[in-house]
Amino acid sequence: MLDQYKQQHPYLLALDSIIFGFDGESLKVLLVKRGVEEKTWSLMGGWLQPDEGLEKAAARILFELTGLTNVYLEQLFAFGEPHRDPIIRTISVAYFSLVKVADYASKISETFQARWFSIYDLPPLLFDHGDMVDLAIKRLRYKAAQHPIGFELLPEKFTIPQLKKLYDAIYNTDFDKRNFSRKILSTNLLIKLDEKQKGFSKRGAYYYQVDMAKYQQTTDSFLNFIPS
């Protein structure tokens, strides 16, 4: 039995993080500049340590790179083409996470030269990281249509127009205002506040908060969340 193990080839296991953020106007992904080539950008990532499981390692790497904890984090896919890394055979398990840009703003490390890019205007990416981002966008769209995970990208209080802008950005479209508002409010996931957003219109738009008790109950259930 041990001989069978000894006959196998060693591989490295990396974890790459597709970190999505929303700045109020566009959906963005966080990239870092690679030193090996000045104009090459890549996803943030790290290596699996001997005493870690995948989930623990992904959370650790996200914290080391952003300073954030308790953020939405989901395993995406394993990328293992033989020559995806020309240096040594490396398997990468990709995760995508949803963070609030305002929370991350003060955590940016100059060491990594991190920068937010619009998902619709990405620079050339290292290895197969472009494939990772494409797959993560598809997964995000699928999940956001059926589950209320979009709230993970918004501040604690927000208006319906702000929420619509987020989903417009995710799907690269322009949802009908009335249909979107009616669909969102019909989920009963939002709590209307007495406070209004000022400075954007004469009447102002009411702020809402997520009903966290209902949110926790519905994250794993099918909602048909977004109108067609």
Task: List the domain count as a whole number.
Answer: 2
Strand element count: 9
* Beta-strand proportion: 25-35%
**How is the main sheet built?**
7 strands, mixed
Q: What's the CATH architecture name of the largest domain?
A: Alpha-Beta Complex
Structural write-up:
This protein has helices at residues 2-6, 54-66, 101-104, 129-146, 160-171, 177-186, 212-218; strands at 12-22, 27-33, 41-42, 44-47, 72-79, 90-100, 114-118, 190-197, 205-210. It is α+β, with helices and mostly antiparallel strands and 228 residues long. It folds into two domains: 2-146, Nucleoside Triphosphate Pyrophosphohydrolase (Alpha-Beta Complex), CATH 3.90.79.10; 149-218, Winged helix-like DNA-binding domain superfamily/Winged helix DNA-binding domain (Arc Repressor Mutant, subunit A, Orthogonal Bundle). The strands form two sheets. Strands 1, 2, 3, 4, 5, 6 and 7 form a seven-stranded mixed β-sheet that branches. It has a two-stranded antiparallel sheet with strand order 8-9. The protein is elongated and about 70 Å long.
Descriptive key words:
single chain; 7 helices; Arc Repressor Mutant, subunit A; Nucleoside Triphosphate Pyrophosphohydrolase; two-stranded antiparallel ribbon; 27% strand; 7-stranded mixed sheet; WH-like_DNA-bd_sf; hydrolase; alpha+beta; 30% helix; 228 residues; 2 domains; 9 strands
